[in-house]
Structures are given as C-alpha cells and as structure tokens.
Please model this.
Amino acid sequence: MQTHDSTAASGEQDPLAIESALLAELGAELVTTSADIDPRYFSAYNEAPGRRPLALVRPRSVGDVSRTLALCARLRQPVVPQGGLTGLARGGVALGGEIVLSMERFAGIESVDAAAATITVRAGTPLQAVQDAAAAAGFTFGVDLGARGSCQIGGTIATNAGGTRAIRYGVMREQVLGLEAVLADGTVLSSMNRMLKNNAGYDLKQLFIGSEGTLGIITRAVLRLRPKLGAPATAMCRVAGYDAVLRLWDRMRAVTDVVSFEAMWPSFYQYVSTHTPGVVAPFAGEDGFAVLIEFATSTPGGDAAQTLEACLADCLEAGLIDDAALATSERQARDMWTLREGLAIDELPHLVNFDVSLPTGELGAFAERCEAALRARWPDIVCVFFGHIGDGNVHIGVSLAELDDALADELDRTVYEVVQEMDGSISAEHGIGVLKRAYLACTRSDAEIALMRLLKAALDPQRILNPGKVL
Ligand SMILES: Cc1cc2nc3c(=O)[nH]c(=O)nc-3n(C[C@H](O)[C@H](O)[C@H](O)COP(=O)(O)OP(=O)(O)OC[C@H]3O[C@@H](n4cnc5c(N)ncnc54)[C@H](O)[C@@H]3O)c2cc1C
Model:
C-alpha cells in the first residue's frame, strides 16, 4: 500500500556515522545506539515490533531537541518524533532509516496560573499527570481519553486528540493557548501565549496542532483549565433508533451539565453486552441503540445525579427513551464505560478499526450505507458502529474471516468511498499517520493538499520530520 516517500531526506548516511555524530553532539546519556533500543520504541500500539530505528534520542531539555534537529538537518537525517506511542495511525514509529526522538524524559508541570486558569507543561508529560495537577489546583482539564495514563501532552497536541468530553470543552486544539516547537533546522519557536485573546498576526501554534510531527517537534504548551467538576453521574439509555438518538441528543445538549453522550449501535451493544466478562450490562442486547450519558457540574452545591435523573424521567415521559439505568455506584458507572470502550471488540479476528466523522444528523444514514456497501462485498462480515455522537464522530469495527494487504485496501476504500460521497472526514480524531495517507484525497481537495505540501516544503524543505506520514 503505502511506501516510504522517495522525496524524503535520503537517510542514506552510514548508520554508524549517524550514531557517531549523535554521540559526539549529545553524549551517550541521551543517545541509545540502534542495537540497544528496546522494541517498545519501534512498536505501534498493540502491534508487533516494526523497523528498528538507527538511533534513539531522549532529550532532557528544549536545547537538546534543538541540537538534535540542527545536526539532523546538517546530515539530512530523518527523525520520527515520539510521545507515548498510543496513537492509532502508526505515526510515531520509524519506517526505515530514521532516528526516533522520544519526548518521555522532557516531562513535568512547569507552573499553574490560577488567575488565568492555565497550566504550563512539558511535551512528555502524560495526560493523566496534567489532569491530576489540574484537579490539585482546583480545576478540570478539558480532554480525557482511554489512553490517559500513557499518552503524552505533546502526542495529544500533535494528533489534536478528541476524546469523551469534546462536546463540553472541545478537542485538544481548544485547550492550547500557547506552544513551543522546534523547527526542522533546530530553531526554537516559542509562542507561549497565555491569553485567551491574542490576534497579533498569524496564530502560528495552529501549524503544529494536528500535524503529527511533520512540521515541528512540540516541546512545551500553555493549556486552558476549566472550573472543577463535581462527582459525575452516569446513565445508560435504551433508544429505539437513530432518529430517537438525535432527539435525545437535542434534549441533552441544552443541559449545561452534559459531559459525554456516547451512542452504541444495536450490533455493537449486543456484542459487548454478551462478550465482556465480569461486567453487568444494564439491559439485554436486543434491538435498539444504547446511549451512555455522563453529567457533571461545576455549580457549587449542584448535584449531577439529581439533574440527570430528572432529565431521564422527562425523556421517558416524552417517549424519547424506552428504558434507562442510572448508575448508583462507581462500579456500575465503570461497567457502563467498559461496555462503551468496547475492549471485547478488539478480540474479533482480523479486526480493522475506522474513525470517521460526519455531521451528527447524518451518522445514522452513513452507518446504514456503509454497512450495506460492506455486506454487498462481504455478506458475512461482523461490523459494529459506536462513537462520540455529539461531535459527529463514529468508530467502526470490521472483522473479516481473512485479511491480507489487498483485502485491507479494498476494505478501506469501501468505507472511505461512502465517507467521501457523504462529504465526511476519513479521520475524526486519530490522525492520518501512515494508515490513512493513501486516502487523504477522499477528504481533502487538491487545493488543500497543495497548500499542505507548500507548508511542509517551507517548514521542512529537506523532509526530515516524520517522512512518510500524513502527506
Ligand atoms: C485505549 C486508547 C484510547 C484512545 N482513545 C482516544 C480518544 O478517545 N480520542 C482520541 O482522539 N484518541 C484516542 N486514542 C488515540 C490518541 O491519538 C492517542 O492516545 C494520543 O493522542 C497520542 O499521544 P501519544 O503521546 O501516545 O503519541 P504517539 O502515539 O507517540 O504519537 C502520535 C503522533 O504524534 C507525533 N508526536 C508525538 N509527540 C510529539 C511531539 N512532542 N511533537 C511533535 N509530534 C509528536 C508522532 O510523531 C505521531 O505522529 C486512544 C488510544 C488508545 C490506545
């Protein structure tokens, strides 16, 4: 399918010469030579080890990142920036001939500004550490996702991660006020703005958010904090069809306490409710959608459980939902989230995951068209849909009896053709990386791709930053 781009920097240096140059510039404390690199630095999430990088650099400062890139620019040596390696588009692994630059040692909270409600963090800081620091200072951080313990702030910014609170606080882009990045030639671009308003010329930080390490290496960020949320209240509802899901969403989004609104199509709920050991499903997986709703309030003295219960009673009376279960313990709430996270799906043979977006109102029709297109080609396919409905994001899990590269490509094309026909996006929140590179044109116009190439050429003329990814 995709191959390493031949127009990228050559990477034709003698690997030993690269190692020696890195060791001479940075020292053995920062550089691990190829043979000694632990396989976790060249294994994509949940995958077997791939290509061994020429070297691993683990900087301790912005200056170390700058010196590494300045040297790589001189040597035309390709570099793969790496965070927590939880990305789902294989963007953080080497394809052959690169060095890997892991940000794991450049971690930590630098400061919290309570008056401005901001936190300044280093790129290698795990997301969960930022959430914990925010809570300790009396705030909430706006982004949450399942990989919170391992993914890094730099990685979540580089992929513009979304997650389960996007309907309340927006995606990662909406959390970033300021950013520092190191450019391909080693220049440190410090744009550590701390204000909500700053219209002094181009907003340069946007270049790096969501660019998956292809335009610069993110080193530090100033992030927004939100008022502290009280204990969440969680419920699962049974809803007749997608139109009813939409009516329920319409009702719920008017309530300021809503944090998450996650829909599971009938096939998904049926599967996870019968294949997740140790979890008590709130209702049997018959026909109908399951919707997980979470409320949390920042109003002092507010009670999210009471508000949610009252809302559900209203919705039952109005006939918007057929059944509802309000979690009365942390265990019940966790079980509901475990079902929604759908780990049971990962056990399906030859599973291929998709992460697409369309306007919320069109997701029901999309799922029907997509499943019909898949079944026309593979009648016995297992195919499930679930997602963050409020932000138009649906995940699709497809399991075929057998799978090779040609079938995987045909499967991708079948799904992305429907996305393209309905004017959606082939990547809602996981990015393009390597996996979706061949399909970028399903979502972006020729003019958009040409401008992306122009930006890439301007910022990284030798194509040493994450070659073979995105473009
Ligand atoms: C269980 C699980 C649940 C998830 N749930 C969600 C979800 O709900 N929503 C969602 O959006 N995503 C989700 N993800 C995927 C998500 O994209 C990643 O978890 C996260 O955003 C990537 O961070 P990372 O530090 O692991 O980056 P990596 O995987 O290491 O890298 C990802 C990309 O960013 C680049 N990169 C990393 N660090 C830097 C840096 N400092 N500067 C420049 N480029 C960099 C890499 O080159 C690569 O292209 C989930 C993943 C898992 C495993």
Observations:
- The first strand starts at residue 31 and ends at 33.
- Residues 45, 80-88, 91-92, 103, 123, 145-147, 151-152, 154-156, 158-159, 161-164, 212-213, 217-218, 429-430, 433, 466, 469 surround flavin-adenine dinucleotide (CB under 6 Å).
